From TrEMBL:
Subunit comment: Homodimer.
One GO term describing the cellular component: cytosol
Natural source organism: Paenibacillus algicola
Keywords from the UniProt entry: Coiled coil, Glycosyltransferase, Metal-binding, Potassium, Transferase
Domain called Pyrimidine nucleoside phosphorylase C-terminal: residue spans: 345-418
Family per record: Belongs to the thymidine/pyrimidine-nucleoside phosphorylase family.
Keyword Glycosyltransferase tagged: yes
Protein name: Pyrimidine-nucleoside phosphorylase
Cofactor(s) in the UniProt record: K(+)
PROSITE patterns: THYMID_PHOSPHORYLASE
Catalytic EC class: transferase
Pfam families in the record: Glycos_trans_3N, Glycos_transf_3, PYNP_C
Statement: the UniProt record of this protein carries the keyword Glycosyltransferase: yes
Length: 432
């Protein structure tokens, strides 16, 4: 087999065989196929697309390019949740204990990553003592006994995707549905879960700017998952404005606690229920999505979800008293209000711009080496569709300095107040 023939076949719109795709991925991972040939193939795929079978083959070839996590020692159907990324997305912190309270095993491997705030691991580390560096044995044992554990990323998962994603980044081939879908799904499948629930975001703060693109990506991923034997469902959700009120690490832990108590922001609760019901259903703990949702609501109202969160923290060495005493979480010394400059309705809160404001405060990493400040961030006091009076606070800045003019300017630039405005729908579609 020759790489040049594979490129030519894709260029001409032919369907690649499973062997050809494997030849490419293996050769590229091992450094036998050069970047220029891989770039040419990526560009051919960008223009010619891939069939469902090719997408599934590409995904599995990338899964098999490195280590995979074996969760077979954990009883039950392991369901993982993945979000394509947004601003102030606190759903994992809520969902993990919430579904675990219904005996769905949550065996979560999580990263730190770059972004407006830290990743799930950073957020959890704002709880004193919380340790994600547990052994594989402890991890499996905790999930079997307590249904929940989170561990930091280990192992060399999907090296082919790492290499190809970096190449796509510099060859204008990131934005291709078959390449994005196989990239995301390969990582999820390598992480070992039996079923996958996807939260595909759309809007200013999301990778997919329009609902149509988000739906296409969601369908592509759901089909790949089901084709390779991992039951997969997806929710398309709005990310034109940040999710919930809190954007920041400790602030989001507090928001998760409020939500587990049934007193969180309505949008965050709605999305957690939409994703949670798919997780509970796929785990076989309910016979319909409606029944699953009822059970989730019950776990919130009877306190079991909150109790599970406390157990989870204590199991991993953390101070579970923060659940009842959130003031024990890291606190920023300065709280600065951002008053509205006009009266009316909030019509716009551009998610990625507000995320950047949180990052200016130090809530997220610009580079891998950046230090994160777990205490800082933003609390949005208004959301799109809310009525606001001039002088009323739009947001509260939690900062470690009083010099936050740049953050205030960023917030004013991203929030619009006009005569008419209405809250956008949050859950736009369900893909099964
Ligand atoms: N996120 C991924 O993990 N892969 C892509 O290709 C795009 C976004
Ligand atoms: Ca939030």
């Amino acid at each position: 087999m020759r790489m040049v023939d594979i490129i030519a076949r894709k260029r001409d719109g032919k369907e690649l065989t499973s062997e050809e795709i494997q030849f490419f991925i293996e050769g590229y991972t091992q450094g036998k196929i050069p970047d220029y040939q891989a770039s040419a193939l990526a560009m051919a795929i960008y223009f010619q697309d891939m069939s469902e079978q090719e997408r599934a083959d590409l995904t599995m070839a990338m899964v098999n390019s490195g280590e995979t996590i074996d969760l077979s020692a954990i009883e039950g159907i392991k369901v993982d949740k993945h979000s394509t990324g947004g601003v102030g997305d606190t759903t994992t912190l809520v969902l993990a204990p919430l579904v675990a309270a219904l005996d769905v095993p949550v065996a979560k491997m999580s990263g730190r990553g770059l972004g407006h705030t830290g990743g799930t691991i950073d957020k959890l580390e704002s709880i004193a003592g919380f340790d994600v560096e547990i052994s594989k044995e402890q991890f499996v044992d905790l999930v079997n006994r307590q249904k929940i554990a989170v561990i930091g990323q280990t192992g060399n998962l999907t090296p082919a995707d790492k290499k190809l994603y970096a190449l796509r980044d510099v060859t204008a081939t990131v934005n291709s549905i078959p390449l994005i879908a196989s990239s995301i799904m390969s990582k999820k499948i390598a992480a070992g879960s039996d079923a996958i629930v996807l939260d595909v975001k759309t809007g200013a703060g999301a990778f997919m700017k329009t609902p149509e693109d988000a739906r296409e990506l969601a369908q592509a991923m759901v089909r790949i998952g089901n084709r390779v034997g991992r039951k997969t469902m997806a929710v398309i959700s709005d990310m034109s404005q940040p999710l919930g009120q809190a954007i920041g690490n400790a602030l989001e832990v507090q928001e998760a606690i409020d939500t587990l108590r049934g007193r969180g922001p309505k949008d965050l609760e709605e999305l957690c229920l939409a994703l949670g019901r798919q997780m509970v259903f796929l785990a076989g703990k309910a016979s319909s999505l409606e029944e699953a949702e009822e059970k989730l609501r019950e776990a919130i109202s009877n306190g079991k979800a909150l109790q599970k969160f406390k157990e989870f923290i204590a199991n991993q060495g953390g101070d579970a008293s923060v659940v009842d005493h959130p003031e024990r979480l890291p606190q920023a010394p300065f709280h600065i209000e951002v008053p509205a400059r006009a009266s009316g309705k909030v019509t716009e809160m551009v998610a990625d711009e507000i995320g950047t404001a949180a990052m200016l405060l130090g809530a997220g990493r610009a580079t891998k080496e950046s230090e994160i400040d777990l205490a800082v961030g933003l609390m949005l006091n208004k959301k799109i569709g809310d009525t606001v009076k001039q002088g009323e606070s739009l947001a509260t800045i939690h900062a470690n300095t009083e010099q936050v003019d740049d953050v205030i300017q960023k917030l004013y630039a991203s929030i619009t107040i006009a005569a008419e405005g209405k809250a956008p729908a949050l859950v736009l579609d369900i893909v099964t």
